[in-house]
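thought: fold this chain, then report.
action: predict
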Amino acid sequence: MSGSGTSGSSRGSGQGAGGGSRRNAQGRERNRGPQRGFTESAPSQRTRRADPARLVAFEVLRAVAAEDAYANLVLPARIRHHGLDKRDAGFATELSYGALRGQGTYDAILARCVDRPLDELDPAILDALRIGVHQLLAMRVPAHAALDQTVGLARAVIGAGPSALINAVLRKVSARTLDEWLDLLLSTETDATRIASIRYAHPEWIVRALRQSLVVHGRPAAEIDELLEADNAAPVVNLVALPGVGSLDEALESGATPGELVEGSALSSGGDLGRLASVRDGSTRVQDVGSQLVARAMAAVDLGTNPGTAPGAEAGTDSGDAGERWLDLCAGPGGKAALLGALARQRGAHLLANESAPHRAKLVRQALSAVPREAWEVRTGDGRDIGSEQPESFDRVLVDVPCTGLGALRRRPESRWRRTPKDLVDLGPLQRQLLNSAIDAVKPGGVVAYVTCSPHPAETTAVVSDALRKREDLELLDAGAVLDSVSLTGHLEAGHDLTAQLWPHVHQTDAMFLALIRKLA
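observation:
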């Protein structure tokens, strides 16, 4: 892969200024330790190839670091490129995501084992070290295999000199278990935020933000450790069969289990879901249950009920929806739009899916392709303009605004290290403009579902409060009650002050926020 060849050969090689060899007359290489002895094995006996599964993980980390790529997009392509079987694909997935999630903790450990600041290491070397540390401390990989294979990977794709450094550092890491390393790192720490940051591999500002979010949404601050731990758990793959279009039969026959939170959902252990015909044709989709719930909630609000009341069991399922116009204001990449399109078709409604970026609008069309064409259309344009261009034209509007994604850190492992508090400042005006456009676009008596995949108050309650404060023709519906009505349990305990917040550690979903706003007639 680009950037992973011999870019590290000029650093960490251990050679002196004169570039002298460390090999003796028999071709054996001297160790880097103080004894300056020689290894017992000849170079021909050492692993010199890159194990394909570990190579995939290395390429994913390199793409994330060097190209600002998203791991969930790069990983499947690299797995296919290297032809990994199901077992090796699972190993590569755990190694890639685990090394990315644990980066903060692993870097703190590595800082104790490397004789220079980590930012002075070649980035490729640092990524190889992170892969090695995750195997040694968090996977059921024998230490000798983790060392041998990681060094072999480095020797094959970075260079012989850096592989010696990697070998020496990982041997130091292997001297302690993860718990022993944490005890050492935290032995002098007294700040609770700093301790949680190191123990659970989250930046300190995110630890503070999530603790505040828990309190704002009505949960105890003491749950922060459970939430951070849930962020680090490998998520189960959620599936949804598009209503009236798809079926879960094939997925269930392949080992998936019925979902416990929402109708038409299933849980899969993963693997190559592309082997399922229903996934290939788009009638069954990979989608977090939290996203399924908020989309179904928007569709389920009974527009004929009294203000503030939850719908009944049959709400939104009769001919009362016929002729309605629905809008997905920020539809890309199309997961919620596909579910809404299928629901709209069942109910005789019509969905307009809007996306500002042409390449993402193309993804929306692909996502909706399994739904009969008469039920939907896609618009490419700025969602902030729809309110003025098509005022009071829609009965239901979903506005799933761009956000920091702090609620999906378990699925986007690199995101926690990319986001900064500045993102909250930058995204705030856009979120408000999109919500205002949605409110302008909805008919009197209609409902706007404001959704974020972030629990942060700056992106959730603050945005909704601003909109309500500036207009007198709006009211909040009980979003928690509506979510309960579309869930199989009927009792999610997600509601607080009429808004609703889902949580990874409580609901095993992404941390989706939902506010339902009715425009008064």
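thought: worth noting. The first helix runs from residue 52 to 67.
final: tokens above.
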